[in-house]
Design goal:
Chain lengths: 444, 444
């Protein structure tokens, strides 16, 4: 170890992935029952057995003992909507009606002074309280909403991907930009924020329904000019949505073909939902290296359908997992995994605990093309991490009494876990302060 | 009001049902924004506007002010397994494998001295902490497990329905009774516990697969001799289970026909799951007045399938809602409702908030034939109730800022709620003590 005062070490049970357990099996994960994670300047400098590493630390290193808790890389959420934290749990509608009745109403409030700032602070509090340290975030159509999000994320030094939504039709007038303004605002945001600190920009045409061909062409120009930016959009969530999109772009081969025609289906494209995919669409995803984003709580809550992960694997398509707040119903990636498990079970597929926890750490990092930076404890990675207590609730503690091994213990965490299991969250090596998850006292 | 010292009054927002909101609409519920519930000797003596009732109370009446919280009748859970609190969240198998690999292993431990007592105490703690005051409970095959459950429930004065499982084949030898011992043990338990205090007995042949025709005939005798006891069993959960049951009872018209042939399909029969029902089975349920028990978290977790509530309505079959612990993944009936909503959404059906909250209170009371005793705040009913804080988590408090009316507020509670929303639970007018739901501190 070098210079003393910047060194910090966390002791606890360490779990991370170096490969995909679906293909690599047991070799994919690393587990240390008494491990030490050494952090310097926000990066991981060493990881190993505590007994072996402790003597190598400088005398003034700060050691935080998190035993017996589990320390994992911070969770990654591949798709959510910042303006929808007050849309969660809105009743009764399927996609198109839900957008018009609830979402577009709330999104209009983002034009108000201070509202975006308040929502961004709330969202980041909630994500960090849930152990999520990176997310791909849709802001509203307003440039200021993305400004507010990046400013808040930058202040907290979180590694976030976000973009201003581009949307110039089939939405209330107050929520429409134009092909020109959508381009110019995105361009300005990219110049100001992409690569500044830990912030990354995603070019964000909401979906083909709300972008005219002219705006899709503008997005295409942005992608050509900024090939290192992500693209995020929606596809194949709902049958009515698909029919409408096809009607608007009759010349496209299919829904995926619409995005393909504008070069929006590429290796940095995060395509939300992918539930009702045609054979050619799967092949197009594979050919372009596009990412299918699975949003289980949202897909169930809106009754959209069941994502076919086994099919994605067979087709060679990368999959990311996401909450889709506010169509989704939980900020917790653990809760999201529990619902993913159910979606797969209904299709005769399954999701072992190691695969599940890989998905929301290294798996999502790979899908986002950020695995050289985050998602694991390999040396040099950014020290974003979550400290978990798998026995945080009485029901979980009781259940864990009979758990026979780590795999079973982790499966309980995946099935019953949520933000209550998060003991601490660290961003670039710093423990982030928070008032905790509860508003009310736990008494009864 | 009569004699002073037994009178207690709870003040808060009161919500209860006097009819089914699916048919009766707005007329089905009663809501008092500032209500008073007056309790004497464990029963509801009066309910109304606080301002009107307060002057009528005796001078020494104890008034508990729960404003601004919501007070509802205690929740009712129509199906769960006491021996499975340490089976919850067991990985990967569908029904038959899950039984053999996990459940039957844990159930054998119930033969150990003290184990049943510990599990019963845990279960009742957890149910009450979740706001559930009545449940229909499967014990293990051991007579002592039902003894332990009834003793613990009697001590707490909770209104519970339970029974010793009858199971004489297709299970490990240590878990088998015989037609004779199953009959005699059930008979003895009925004599000792049915109608004692608030305890009720359910004749409990686990399902046709684990009961020989001789044992089914023994259950039939029990039903004939004790027509006021409930019957609880399983049906049509899983395709492999159905095929196996049909093979074991080839003379039956169908799975329902097996139970019908032994008079086990009657108006007090709680039939767990009912997912893969044939046309004739629905008609048989309607003809006999049997209850279909919908267990959404279990059905999703085990990948069993989607319960068709609209069909049950069309067929005139009563529906109850249940956790099915430990196939189910939450003790909370609120969480169970959120999953019920998702199951219905996937089928193009829906579940408005009032219907959902009706289901777990008066609806389940009607299905269990206990609506003259529990499930509402009508005068003379037993004062089992739950005090709820719909804004108990930060995410819920934030979401509720934009809720426009009671309906929307309740829908948030149904969609995002769980045991964290339970501020207090009362059993027969007494606030039940508990260490609270959390083991770990909420700090982060």
């Amino acid at each position: 170890m070098s210079t003393g005062d910047a060194v910090r070490a966390l002791r606890g049970r360490l779990l991370w992935f170096v490969d995909d357990p679906h293909s690599a099996g047991e070799a994919a994960h690393r587990y240390l029952a008494d491990g030490l994670l050494v952090i310097e300047n926000g990066l991981i400098r060493a990881v190993g057995e505590a007994q072996a590493l402790l003597p190598t630390l400088p005398a003034d290193a700060a050691i935080v003992d998190h035993r017996p808790h589990l320390i994992m890389p911070g969770f990654i959420d591949a798709h959510l909507h910042m303006p929808q934290t007050q849309v969660i749990a809105s009743y009764g509608a399927q996609l198109m009606e839900w957008l018009n009745r609830y979402t577009f109403v709330e999104e209009q409030k983002l034009a108000q002074q201070g509202h975006a700032e308040a929502l961004c602070a709330f969202l980041l509090d909630e994500l960090l309280a849930s152990g999520t340290t990176t997310a791909a975030v849709y802001c509203s159509v307003h440039r200021r909403s993305a400004e507010a999000f990046f400013a808040e994320s930058h202040r907290r030094n979180t590694r976030m991907i976000a973009g201003k939504v581009m949307m110039d039709r089939n939405a209330p007038e107050a929520l429409r930009d134009t092909p020109e303004s959508g381009y110019a605002d995105s361009k300005a945001l990219i110049a100001r924020w992409h690569g500044r600190g830990r912030q990354l920009y995603a070019i964000t045409p909401r979906f083909a329904i709300t972008s005219s061909p002219e705006q899709m062409a503008a997005a295409q120009r942005l992608v050509a000019e900024h090939p290192d930016c992500h693209v995020q959009t929606h596809i194949d969530e709902n049958r009515a949505e698909i029919a409408f999109a096809r009607e608007l772009y009759p010349q496209a081969a299919d829904y995926a073909g619409i995005y393909e025609d504008y070069d929006l289906l590429g290796p940095r494209s995060l395509m939300g939902h992918c539930i009702h995919m045609e054979d050619r669409e799967w092949r197009a995803f594979a050919a372009h290296g596009a990412v299918a984003v699975f949003c289980p709580t949202s897909n169930l809550f809106l009754g959209s359908g069941l994502f076919d992960w086994a099919r994605a694997r067979r087709e060679g398509v990368r999959v990311a997992v996401a909450t889709d707040i506010g169509g989704g119903t939980s900020y917790s990636m653990l809760r999201t995994l529990a619902e993913a498990y159910k979606v797969l079970q209904l299709q005769g597929q399954t999701l072992p605990a190691f695969e599940a926890l890989h998905a929301i750490t290294r798996g999502n990092a790979v899908a986002l093309g950020l695995d050289h930076l985050i998602g694991s404890f390999e040396i040099g990675r950014e020290a974003d991490l979550v400290v978990l207590d798998p026995a945080a609730t009485r029901a979980m503690a009781h259940r864990l009494e009979t758990a026979r091994d780590l795999d079973e213990q982790l499966f309980v965490l995946v099935t019953l876990g949520d933000e209550r299991n998060v003991v601490a969250t660290y961003v670039a090596g710093e423990r982030v302060a928070s008032a905790g998850q509860r508003v009310a006292a736990p008494a009864r």
